[in-house]
Amino acid sequence: MDKKLEPIVKALQEKFSATLEEFRDEAHLFVKPEQIVEALTILRDEHNFELLSALTATDYWPQQEPRFHVVYQLTSLAKNLSLQLRVPVNGSDPKVPTSTGVYAVANWRERELLDMFGIEFDGHPDPRRILMPEDTVGHPLRKDFPLGYEEPQFTFNLEEIDLRKPYAKE
Amino acid sequence: MGIEQKLGNMGVVTTTLESMVNWSRTNAMWPMLFGLACCAIEMMSAQASNYDMSRFGMELMRASPRQSDLMIVAGRVSKKMGPVLRLLYDQMPEPKWVIAMGDCASCGGVFNNYAIYQGVDEVVPVDVYVAGCPPRPEALIHGVMTVFEKVNGQKLAAPAVK
How far is A58 from chain B (nearest CA, A)? Predict the structure, then answer.
């Protein structure tokens, strides 16, 4: 971990009783969903983390519970630092408060997470799907979403698949 | 040409109405100007001077579906693009033909996933499938020639029935 990052991480750990994980000199702080907005606000206003460079999620199903980690990758251009905040969310009712009030860029990112993982963001101004069509069923980047859409056609099953293939009408 | 000298003044040509109509359809078949993915590069190359599709009366790519007869689906069609493609097809005047160019448009290609149609024939009725990833311009031109063969075989009584 960067020397300049240590006091910031320490302050956050004390304030939110957050756990710290380090991986290849990168700091990952685990906070609870209800703490994330305040943590982001403190990092932005007091520690110069003015850029939310990535907001994404990871699905650890079925190895871990809670299965989702919402990942906030923050960058401080002024101090040349980067810090990752992670919010573990369970799979049955994944809900995180929205951070659009802190970083405006979070708007579309949170919509993407809603689309791809089904993680809901409380208080989001425009909670719609962003990539998939509105009538899509399911969330494609969840690990339990079926992988292939159609069985590949070979000589032995060509006709069988052809029968149930939805050809367009005139 | 030489044939005029042999036959004298050829003021009149007799032919069937059917072959006349089909001749005019095949020799001024205007494809629609749109490409969806890398196949579009090969389609442009087929249009450009090296391969020169204008030899077959196809030099005009129409940007409006209302002026085009042929839809070349060049690339993979995503689930979100499907309704748009169908709308464009519906706006084309009869008679109209569709070429599924490349593996993605024909059967989904390597994109066997949630976002891509497994063959554009789920959205619009396809006349000719051109294999290849992407097909070379020769292959596309061969596909177009195959459409021409199909058009030349059409009867006037049922002009738009495939």
Answer: 19
Question: How far is the alpha carbon of A55 from chain B, nearest alpha carbon, in Å?
Answer: 22
Question: Does some domain include residue B66?
Answer: yes
Instruction: Count the domains in chain B.
Output: 1
Assess if residue B109 is contained within a domain: yes
As for the ipTM of the complex, it is: 0.71
A168 interfacial to chain B (CB closer than 8 Å) = yes
Per-residue model confidence as pLDDT tens digits over A95-142: 999 999 999 999 999 999 999 999 999 999 999 999 988 888 889 899
Looking at residue B137, which CATH number applies to its domain?
A: 3.40.50.12280
Q: Is residue B85 part of a domain?
A: yes
A137 in contact with chain B, both atoms CB, cutoff 8 A: no
Q: How far B145 CA lies from chain A's nearest CA (Å)?
A: 22
B86 inside 8 A of chain A by CB: yes
pLDDT of residue A30: 93
- Tell the CATH superfamily of the A6-139 domain: NADH:ubiquinone oxidoreductase Nqo5 subunit (3.30.460.80)
CA angle B65, B71, B75 (to 5 degrees): 120
Does residue B16 fall inside a structural domain? no
Domain of B79, in residue numbers? 29-152
pLDDT tens profile B36-84: 888 999 998 998 889 888 888 787 788 899 999 999 999 899 989 999 9
Amino acid identity, position A59: D
Which residues of chain A lie closer than 8 angstroms to B123, CB-CB? 168
For A60-117, the DSSP string reads: -TTTSSS-EEEEEEEEETTTTEEEEEEEEE-SSS-EEE--TTT-TTHHHHHHHHHHHH
Query: Both tokens of residue A158?
Result: 């060509």
Domain residue spans of chain A: 6-139
Residue A46 parent element (H or E): helix A36-46
Contact B122 A147 (CB under 8 A): no
Residues 6+ apart with CB under 8 A from B146: B128
